[in-house]
Amino acid sequence: MNSSASYTIDAADVPILRNAILQFAGIGYGETSIRERLGLNDLTDLRWRALPIYREEKLAVRDSQAIAIDLFLLQGAIPLTELDRLFDQADQAALVRAGLLLLDEPGIARARASLFPIGNHLIFSDHAWPSLPHPGYEQVPPDQVMFIGKDSRWLGRATARRPVGAALDLCTGSGIQALLAASHSRRVVAVDINPRAVQCARFNCQASGVNNIEVRLGDLYEPVGDASFDLITANPPFVPSPRDSLKYRDGGRSGEDVQSRIIAGLPQYLAPGGMAQMVTEFGERGDEPLANRLREWLRDAPMDIHILRLHEHSVADYSIGHADGAGSYQAFLDSVQDWAGNLRTQGYNRIVSVLLAFQWSDPTLGRPWTRSEAPQSLHSAANTEVEAAFAAERMVRQANFHELLERSRVRWAGPIALLEARVLGREMSGNTQAELLGQGLPILQTLDPVERDILLLIEKPLAVSELIAVAQGSNFAVETILTTLGSLIRRRLVHLFQ
C-alpha cells in the first residue's frame, strides 16, 4: 500500500521544484494541450474507467508530454527509463524528498500526488481516484485533500477577477481558488480545517512562488477574526451522504452542514461592494425555491443572489453514482439503497449543482433580487459574464431606467442564434429561443413574441427613439417597447450605450 504525499519540502529544493513545473509547462503539460491530447471537450470529462483507452489510443507515442500525463494525471506506473526523460537524477531525488515521487519497485516510478492543470496554473493535490492500484489504498485516507475536479474548475472559471484588496478562500483544500485569487488580490487568506490540506496549500504556494497568500488552519471564519473581505470563495463539502465518511466531500446527511454556515457568515465577513461565490450542490424538494433556503441562512440580510444551475441529478442517478461498488454486487445494491433512502428521508427529489454569487443589495434599487439561470455548459472563463449579470439587473431596476433608455442607443450584445419551433398544421405560435454566441455561459433564453420582434428590429445599432418609431409602426406601445428592452438587457442579449 502506497502512502500519500507529504507536501513538505526543504528550502533548498524549492528552486528545483519550481524548475520542474516550468519544464512541465514547456512540454505541453497544460489544460488546453492535455485536453486536446486526450481527445476531450473539457478536462472535466476525464473518466477513470477510460484510463486504459487514454493510454492505448492517446498516449501510445511515449513523448515527454505523454509520460508526464500518465504519471501525474492518470496515476500511472512508468519505468525509470521514462522518468529519466522527464527529470535528471538531482530533480528526481528532490521530488522523492518532497514526497511527490515513489520508486516502489525495481525500475518503476509512481506519483504520490497528482499535478492538475487549471488555467495557467499547475496544482499538486491528492489523486482523483485514490482507490486505483497505481497508487492505491485499502480505503480513502481520512485526511484526503480534494483533487481538482469539475466543481473546482467551474468555480475558477466563474469567479470575478477584478482587482481587490482582500480575498478569503474557505475550504481551500489544495489552495487552488486562493492561488487564482492571488493574481488580482493584494492579500489572500486561505482556510481549511484539515491540517494536511493546509500543508498542501502551503506547498503549492511555495511551488508557485506566490507570496501574498496566508494559509490558516481552522473552522471556516474562525481564524480570520473580525476581518472583512472583498472576495469570498468556497468549494465546501456538500454531498448529502448517509455515512459522512469522506470529510473533504460529505456535508452531513442533508449536505448542508458546512455550506449553510458559510452563507450565514456572509453578512459579517463580506465587505461592501464585495462578491462571494460558491460552488455546491443542493437537494431540492418539489417546487420549493432554492432562494428561500439561501435567504433563511442569510437571515434576510439585504443581498442580491445570482444562481447558475449547472446540472440536475435524479435521486436514482445520484445514488448510483455515489454508491460504494467495492465487494459484491449485493453490497453495491445495498449501498445504492442506503443513498437513495437518505435522499428520500431529506425530502429531496433531485440534486442540483449550482454556482452561487452574492453581493450586497443597493437599497435605492428596491428589494434584494434573486436571478436563476441554467447555462448549457461552463467550459471556459465566464467571470465577466457573472459580473455583467449583476450590472444588467441593477441597471434595469433604476427608477429612471426608461428615461435613460430614451436618451440612449442599443445594439445586439454579439452574434445571436435564434431558434424557433413550430407545430405544423396548427394555428399556434411557436417557441423562440435566443443564445448569445461565444460565451463561457451559453444560455438559451426563451423569448415571447414581442421580445423576438423587438430583438429582430435591432439588426444594427440605433437610437432607442428610432427603435420606438419603427416598433410603433407594428402597433407596439412605447411602454411595451421600453419594458421589452429592459428584459433583453437583463438577459444580456442587448447592450445599452450612449
Description:
- This protein has 498 residues and is an alpha/beta fold.
- The chain folds into three domains: 11-112, no CATH class; 150-360, Vaccinia Virus protein VP39 (Rossmann fold), CATH 3.40.50; 396-497, Enolase-like, domain 1 (2-Layer Sandwich), CATH 3.30.390.
- The protein is built from 18 helices and 19 strands.
- The strands form five sheets. The protein has an eight-stranded mixed β-sheet.
- Strand 7, helix 9 (195-208) and strand 8 form a beta-alpha-beta unit.
- Helix 12 packs across helix 13.
- The longest helix has 17 residues, at 329-345.
- It starts with 13 loop residues before the first helix and ends with a strand.
Properties at a glance:
498 residues, alpha/beta, Enolase-like, domain 1, 3-stranded antiparallel beta sheet, 19 strands, globular
How is this structure best summarized?
The chain has 498 residues and is of the alpha/beta class. The chain is built from 18 helices and 19 strands.
